[in-house]
Specification:
single chain, four-stranded antiparallel beta sheet, alpha+beta, 402 residues
């Protein structure tokens, strides 16, 4: 028991020592594990700089609709928010079968040398991908991040190249990654909007929630304790993640995701002055979203669709089909003001291909367009030719004689 207490005490001293260096997430580790969240910031959309941070954004996870923003495109240092992209690439590699949770990862000299938040990996030490994922998602471990990056891509530089390529694919226009940990480095920047974009992508993979919602865990048969740096996971109803970040340059950052009554939101706070401010701001943003918006599924339009005339086809009409657009996010007071305006072609020339667009449906809320989806041909219809017409006529005559 005494040995265990000494070990815990040593861990705390190491954490405090790291705080002095201000290298990377989390320099202000909150040791008051049972202390609840600070009071939420009151979010008023018309008020400028109502969030106590450099920048912030509130976004619907499904559609990407922005519900609130403050300096959302200002480039800032991301700290360990960086690890959202690191986690995304690892999860995608797992889902593609390129790596497995049971893979043994051997710690390199580089991974073991990482400062800031860590699980004190030793060079040559082995851990599974699952264990390293827990260390990153729960405790924001820098050494575990580099170990995973090397396992996925062969080296950290190769992994960073993939990070930037994936960021470009996602439309993260103001992001540049120079490392996979979030350690302060000039030119390593992102924005609140870009963080929300990559957060939406990561949280769309159910596997990550199995890690990001863990409050406490352990490694090395209980010798290493993991405590989630995101207090919302324990104290905010519906929280699903996602990632904190703190450095002396970046300040206190947080990307927080939560789901209630079918509505999923992501709140990003960048450059808050301290940990309490970031949690208060994220809580206020999420509270504002859940209080004022609702997720609604537009009613079916199947009974409103009519066949489209086909000119010079082997059939004289084609029935339009569609894929349900899913739910949309609207202000609660406008929930009863949703309408769908159908625009459908009067006729179409043969040949008609399967999936050919025949029209569109605009989803409108209180007269404003909030989305749209296509109406498509449900079958292929060939063009009528003389040989086909003769064959059809002959077939009809033969059927009459039978």
């Amino acid at each position: 028991m005494i040995k265990r207490l000494l070990a815990v005490g040593l861990c705390l001293l190491l954490v405090l020592a790291q705080s002095a260096t201000a290298l990377a997430d989390e320099i202000d580790v909150d040791l008051k594990l049972d202390e609840g969240l600070p009071e939420a910031v009151q979010v008023i959309t018309l008020a400028e700089d109502s969030i106590p941070a450099k920048s912030a954004i509130l976004m619907d996870q499904q559609s990407g609709r922005v519900l609130f923003e403050q300096n959302a495109d200002e480039p800032v240092a991301p700290a360990s928010i960086t690890k959202i992209m690191t986690l995304l690439l690892v999860i995608e590699a797992l889902e593609e079968g390129k790596i497995s949770l049971e893979d043994k990862v051997v710690t390199s000299e580089l991974a073991a040398s990482m400062g800031g938040s860590q699980i004190w990996l030793e060079p040559g030490e082995e851990m599974t991908v699952d264990e390293l994922l827990r260390a990153v998602a729960i405790a924001s471990a820098n050494d575990a991040s580099v170990a995973l990056a090397e396992h996925v891509a062969g080296s950290e530089p190769a992994f960073i190249e993939r990070m930037n390529k994936r960021a470009a694919q996602l439309g993260m226009q103001n992001t540049r990654f120079l490392n996979c940990t979030g350690l302060d480095e000039e030119g390593h920047v992102t924005t609140a909007r870009d963080v929300a974009i990559v957060s939406r992508e990561l949280i769309s993979h159910p596997m990550i929630i199995e890690y990001s919602t863990i409050w406490m865990d352990e490694l090395r048969n209980g010798e290493t304790q993991l405590v989630n740096t995101n207090k919302l996971v324990r104290f905010y109803p519906g929280a699903t993640g996602l990632k904190t970040g703190t450095t002396s340059i970046a300040g206190s950052c947080l990307s927080a995701t939560a789901t209630r009554d079918g509505l999923s939101l992501v709140a990003v706070v960048m450059g808050a002055p301290n940990s309490d401010s970031r949690f208060a701001a994220a809580r206020g943003l999420l509270d504002y979203g859940f209080a004022n918006y609702v997720s609604v599924t537009p009613p079916s339009i199947a009974d409103r669709l009519t066949p489209v005339k086909v000119l010079h086809g082997v059939k004289d009409s084609v029935m339009p089909v569609y894929t349900s657009p899913g739910s949309i996010v609207v202000e609660k007071e406008l929930e009863d003001k949703i309408e769908q305006v159908i625009t459908l072609a009067e006729d179409v020339q043969a040949p008609v291909s399967m999936g050919q667009v025949l029209g569109t449906v605009e989803i409108m809320v209180d007269g404003a367009v909030v989305g749209s989806y296509p109406l498509k041909a449900g079958e292929e219809i060939e063009r009528m030719t003389f040989p086909r017409a003769f064959a059809i006529l002959l077939k009809s005559v033969l059927q009459l004689h039978h």
